[in-house]
Design brief:
single chain, 381 residues, alpha/beta, Rossmann fold, 5-stranded mixed beta sheet, 12 helices, elongated
């Protein structure tokens, strides 16, 4: 049985907050005990104003704890000098740093400052570390560009390279995906995941990207709006309901199957059986739920039966059956509109008998002397 890794950061009964004028203290979070382990990617999650930034500032030594302590490699953080902390711990903040006309390589070189004296020149080892940091952060192609010219995503990679040049054992990032588009956010999380795996760094980042956190994290730190603090694996916290409670609101609900939050939509409880292949099945289920229907596993439990097939040019062709009545169409938008019309009728008029035809079927039935419109068909009983 292998020994457990030694934590690089430990919070022991930590109390964080701020001091008011006159020396009075206001605690935001109390009784926090948590660890950062080598090679693990940890996400700090919670609503705005819950105290995430205050906790991060305390963990990196920017402000003193109101109680308890933070250990960095077994030593009390507040007993270490700023230089000694910087040799072991790197921080990447959200706010852009104004570095003038500095090139990316020069910026990354600043990461070697904790290891150099005031008048020391860089040695070959320092220059090799800078080049390694640029490669590790995926920023080598940016090395000779001025920082002021960079996009938000390029700037963030450059700042991570500077942090890596410190050769730390812990990397802490405050909302690093805040100003990035979806693609750049995914790329950045993938980079941090790779760094943790390949370098043994303990990585802690605060974020509001819950979906990415659930997919990439080894551990989650959850800060609730009422000041409660929880840690654990993402799956454990999801199954136990902690994630749902952290972001509880009347307008959203947690979808355990998808692992993310969805808009709370009223379901009409209309059972529908779906026949479709992945990956289309996932999106078909989302579409029918949006229309107020509930997918069921067995045809025997369903009043409606939906068959969906892939067609050319990526479109989906569907056919909907109910008690001998059948209709078909193309595209999930049309399907949602059709199902929504049925749901409205069910909701307003109760459960119609099988001898009644939904207005949706009437809408697509051709008038006398007219051909059937589009790809939809009305089949009589």
């Amino acid at each position: 049985m292998s020994a457990l890794p030694v934590p690089v950061v430990s919070a022991e009964n930590l109390c964080v907050g701020y001091k008011r004028r006159g020396g009075r203290s206001t605690a935001i979070l109390q009784g926090i005990s948590a660890q950062l382990l080598p090679g693990q990617l940890t996400f700090l999650l919670g609503p705005n104003g819950a105290g995430k930034s205050t906790l991060l500032r305390t963990l990196v030594g920017s402000q003193k704890p109101l109680g308890g302590r933070v250990l960095l490699s077994g030593e009390n953080l507040i007993a270490l000098s700023a230089r000694e902390r910087a040799k072991r711990l790197s921080v990447v903040l959200t706010d852009p740093v104004d570095v003038g006309l500095m090139t990316v390589r020069t910026l990354v070189g600043l990461g070697r400052s904790p290891h150099l004296g005031w008048f020391s020149a860089m040695a070959d080892d320092d220059r090799q570390t800078i080049e390694w940091a640029l490669r590790a952060a995926g920023a080598s192609q940016l090395a000779d560009r001025q920082v002021i010219e960079l996009s938000d995503g390029e700037r963030q990679r450059s700042m991570i390279a500077r942090a890596l040049a410190q050769r730390p054992s812990v990397l802490v990032l405050d909302e690093p995906t805040a100003f990035l588009d979806l693609t750049r956010r995914v790329e950045l999380i993938a980079l941090l995941r790779k760094l943790a795996d390949e370098t043994g760094l303990a990585v802690l980042l605060s974020t509001h990207d819950l979906d990415l956190a659930l997919r990439a994290a080894d551990q989650l730190w959850l800060v609730h709006a009422d000041g409660r603090f929880e840690t654990g694996g993402p799956e454990d916290l999801a199954v136990g309901g902690s994630i749902e409670r952290t972001y509880a609101a009347s307008e959203i609900s947690f979808d355990h199957a998808a692992g993310n939050f969805i808009l709370a939509r009223k379901s009409h409880g209309l059972p529908i059986a779906i026949s479709a292949a992945e990956p289309s099945l996932h999106w078909v289920r989302r579409a029918v739920r949006r229309a107020g229907f509930d997918p069921v596993a067995r045809d025997a439990d369903a009043k409606w039966r939906l068959a969906v097939h892939d067609a050319q040019q990526g479109a989906l062709v569907w056919k909907l059956d109910e008690a001998g009545c059948s209709n078909s169409g193309q595209g999930l938008s049309d399907l949602v509109n059709a199902l929504a019309a049925i749901a409205d009728t069910e909701h307003n008029n109760g459960d119609p008998t099988h001898d009644q035809i939904h207005p949706w079927y009437n809408d697509v039935r051709p008038a006398a002397g007219q051909s059937e419109p589009g790809t939809r068909k009305q089949l009589s009983k």
